[in-house]
Amino acid sequence: MLAAAAELRSDPALRRLTPRWIRAIVRSWWEAGWTNNDLRYALEYRPRQDGRATPVHRCPAGQLRRPDGWLRHRLSWWRDAHGPLVSPTVDSRRRRSAALVRGHAAAQRLPYGATDLSPTDLQISSDDHRAARSAIVRQWAAEFTARRNAVRPAAEVATVESSKRYYRRISRALDEGRSRRTATPPLLDPADGHGGGPASSASPDTSSPRNHESNALDEGRTAHERALARARAERTSRPLPRAHRRLR
Questions:
Q1: Would the pLDDT of 23 be above 90?
Q2: Between helices 19-31 and 67-76, what is the axis angle to 10°?
C-alpha cells in the first residue's frame, strides 16, 4: 500500500501528502478492489444515478489549502452507507455487457454500479429531449464550421481573372436584355389582311373567341346605355310626388 500511495503522489494535488497519509485515506478503497487508475478516475469524475459518471471541475493544485480534505471530499462521492462503490473498472465492464444485450444507448442510461436497467431508467424526460437537440445542433454547427474552414480547391478560389470574366458575362447578358426590350416589332404587310390598314378594320375576324367576347361586351354596353336613357326620359316625363315637389 505504501508503494501504491507513493505512485499516487505523481498527481500534483497529492504531492504535498506523505505516502502514509495517503494510505490512511485510501486504504478502504484498495481493500474494496480499487486500483490507482480507479482512484485517479474518481478524482476527475462524479457518479450519477441516471447514467455513467460525469467529469467535474478541478481547481489548480497550488490553490488547495488542505490536499487531504480535498482528497476525502472527492472520494466521498464514491461511497454509500455500505462503503465504497464498485470500482470504475467493474462499472465499465458491466456497461459493455449491457451494450451487447440492450444496445449502446441503453448502456449509457445504466446507473453507476447497476447490473441491469429498470423501466424507470428507460423513461425519456424533457431534459433528455433538450439534451439530444442540443447535441444535434452542436454536431451540425461543428460540421458547418469544418466545411466553411476547409481548404477549397484551386478551381473554386476567386481570382482577378475570374472576377473580370464573370463581370463581362453579366454585362453581356444585361445588354442583350436591354436590346430585346427596346427592339420594335416588325411591320406586317396590310395585303395579308393582318396589318393595321383599312382592309383589316373593315372586315374583322368574328370567328375567334376573343372577337365573340368583345361583341358581347359591346352589346351589353349598348343595352345598358339604352336603359339609362329610358330611365332619364321616364323621370322627366312623370310628375314628382307632392313631398318631393316641396323639397325641391
A1: yes
A2: 10
